[in-house]
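Quick illustration for those who missed Monday's session on complexes.
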Amino acid sequence: MASAELDAAADPLATFRDEVRTWLAENFPASLRGKDNAMSAVDGPTELSPEDEAWKTAMGEKGWGVPAWPRQYGGGGLDRAQVRVLHEEMARVGAWNPIGGMGVMMFGPTLLESGSEAQKQEHIPAIARGEVRWCQGYSEPGAGSDLASLQMFAEDRGDHYLVNGQKTWTSGGQWADKCFALVRTDKTKKHEGISFLLIDMDAEGVEVKPIRLISGSSPFCETFFTNVRVPKDNLVGREGEGWTIGKRLLQHERSSLSGGGSAARMFAGKPMGALAKEYRGEDDQGRVPDQDLRMRIVRHEMDSRAFALTLRRAALEAKSNQGPSAATSIMKNVGARITQDRAELSIEIMGMNGLGWEGEGFSADELNQTRTWLWGKAVSIYGGSTEIQNNVIAKRILGMLDHQ
Amino acid sequence: MAVLNEEQTMLRDMAREWADNEAPVGAFRKMRNAAPAEGYDAAAWSEMGQMGWAGIVVPEEYGGSAFGYLSLGMVLEQLGRNLTASPLASTAAAAAGIALGSSDTAKSAWLPKIAAGELVATLAIDEGPVHDPARIATSVSDGVLTGTKEFVAEGDSAALFVVAATDGLYLVAGDAGVTRSTRKMADARSHAQVRFDGADAEKLGGPELNTKVIDLATAALAAEMLGMAEQAFATTNDYLKTRVQFGQQLSTFQALQHRMARMFTELELMRSAVEGALEAIDAGRSDTDQAVSLAKAIASDTLHLISREMVQLHGGIGMTDEHDAGFYLKRARVCETMWGNAAYHRERFARLNGY
Ligand SMILES: Cc1cc2nc3c(=O)[nH]c(=O)nc-3n(C[C@H](O)[C@H](O)[C@H](O)COP(=O)(O)OP(=O)(O)OC[C@H]3O[C@@H](n4cnc5c(N)ncnc54)[C@H](O)[C@@H]3O)c2cc1C
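Prediction with flavin-adenine dinucleotide bound:
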């Protein structure tokens, strides 16, 4: 990590750095320093304080919530080095990015690549300002890992499509304004019969039913579409091109799920060793007394560091124009494994205190840990399960054949 | 499967039939949703009492059947399969403590009631969030016991406590000087903090009895875990045979077949280890402590593996509260933690073997 005490004179980006510092000093409310991003909550929208609102508006107007996106669509228009400076300076004052969600993570980048000029003008600035929530309409009851078998049908009615069918596991569907969906426009072809369509969630005929998760929260839905009229303008790319666009979006999803932005959050919080000492005490040499646990903490710590180093290596390799690094293919799986190991170890360290559900006798952190553990079981399932990722690695990277 | 005598076979078949017909996982779900204060279905518990299950380890002269721990384990295994919430394991462990240590008067006062299923009893040992019988501060002076016990299973409803104090095991009967605070945990079963503030206590035995009774409770829990692992595995195996993706049943994918084969392998080892511990107890073998640590360590690891895989292999549906997978996952973790997790028992096993 770069030090905060960079010598301004030796820094070619000194002017930009000064600009960022000044802007942050003027716009980042000191009271929000080091707080969690209220909008990153998995359980849905939370009440925003006036400070939160002000911060979000300021970042949205500046375009720095999506710093690398083009200026003409409301992005920051910054180059890689400037983005790094921005992140460093934000970290220095304990600021965080209030602009997020599926629009930022996956839909925006995809639309920038594949959308028409009019679609970009319409949708990207609103995402950059954090005004519109998007949800992902991919999975169906019969189409999970095998996404290409989806059935939701969009019938060509001249100036519009008439959409009928069901999606499921739609994260945030109950709070979303819009949905990017994969739909079938041709029943005779498998992959080539799929199109990428943008649907208003408040359109007539769209109905959501929240589903409760094992962690107790209901962040996702079954989503039903009955005779929903979708203007033809909402087709991204050409009809039948949806599979290619949809897969590209999944790449954006996987890279943001596995590392990048979330890596910092993944390693945030108390180090496992310190947590273990807090709950288990220490032996007369100042070590975690349970040797078996201690060794498993070490394994986890080493895995995490190797992962962080791999993230860095992949970024450097990509930058030096060698093309995407082979290492990127393993990121989603390793990220998922480390996230889950961390949660498992934490609750093991806490013992019964790490398994509280509600009520008295547990601290807020402890109750939160139970939910984090249970919720975290999803990271190896969504966005392409671990098994599907392994299939992809075996086939695409290692050149192994399908045995079926 | 252990070699069972005729009585044991009958008992096991009856328990299996009862659990499947009267207490499927849906019954646990109903109980969870209704959230009764005692943390189990009272009607089901009363049926278990009538079937004599609460008296399986109670001597015959006190109204029990003295069938032993393998028999108790068979029943708990069947209950574990369907996640049936009951105070059977706790009550049996406490009954064993009383049978081994208390005065004849106390035995005649309590054991027949326990055997009839009229009374819920439990062990109150640990004073922190992890099992650590070496760290006990509860003490007795002038016949009254003072101390705080954490996460006491069935602590919400128990009328009788077998309590660990600094110098051994005590019996606390009655509510004077006893305060309970419920602890709502992920498994939706009964756990409570129990405070004893000058409660009348009768001594059952020294620290050796404490260790012995904990071993009995641990082996009983391992039997419940065996049932859970067995059913979590079977449910997953069935699912893979019905769920179709890529135009084929998931069970046709070799990547999944090998994982199921590995789990099946571990499950077989788990069964041997758990039954081995129960048999060691019944035979009064001197290496029972080792057999129990072996069983609990392997049971913890195997149930952990299978319950995690159950969620993973069910995909999105396994993450929903609507599906049973989450119930197995949550209870598995609590069972792992109770009476010492795998790490604890590996450490104890090493110590018992002198290395
Ligand atoms: C919390 C959560 C949020 C989600 N959010 C969204 C969302 O916003 N939008 C959306 O569209 N979807 C979402 N999903 C759905 C997610 O993408 C799917 O659950 C996932 O693709 C798996 O599909 P499935 O659930 O149908 O499992 P299945 O495809 O039925 O798979 C079941 C198991 O079999 C394995 N498997 C399947 N095929 C193979 C194979 N060929 N080889 C080896 N193993 C295989 C899988 O890896 C998995 O372990 C979400 C899921 C979760 C859990």
